[in-house]
Structure formats: C-alpha cells, structure tokens
Specification:
Number of helices: 1
Strand order of the largest sheet: 1-2-3-5-4
Structural class: mainly beta
Order of helices and strands: EEEEEH
Number of strands: 5
Length: 89
Amino acid sequence: MPKRILIGTVVSDKTDKTVVVKVERKVKHPLYGKIIRRSKKYHAHDEDNAYKTGETVRIEETAPISKLKTWKVIERVQAGKTAAVEADV
C-alpha cells in the first residue's frame, strides 16, 4: 500500500523534533452544494528542527513514531512569510 503524502502549513514548531501541520481540503456540501474548507492538524516528525511556523511543507505517512506522530516532513514546498522576513534580517 502506498504512503499518503499531504501538503500543509506549519502552525507550531514549539516541541522538540515535532511540527504541527495544518492540512486544508475543500469539499462540497452534500445538500447545498457550497464548497467548504475543512482542515485537520497532523503532528509530524522534524529530525533537525529545520521547519518554522508559516512554511508550507510536504508530509508523508510513516510507522508510528510516538503516541501522536505517524507522519514525517519530507521537504519544504514554500518558505513562510515570517521565515522570509527573518532571513532578510
């Protein structure tokens, strides 16, 4: 079975070797037909503490690492606004 890969935004990097990634998806309401945004947060393993809040990252499903972590960060898709500002300073 292939591993699932999702793209989301890092919303927290406060814990050691862990980031919280918010993944949004759009679904159609079953009755009214309006497109609704649904989101879910995933705890992902970040070995080097390399990813910061606001960055867009790609995460991959793995075997359980801890009670909450079953995902790991593969790569940075796009740097966040806060990370870009800190890099300029």
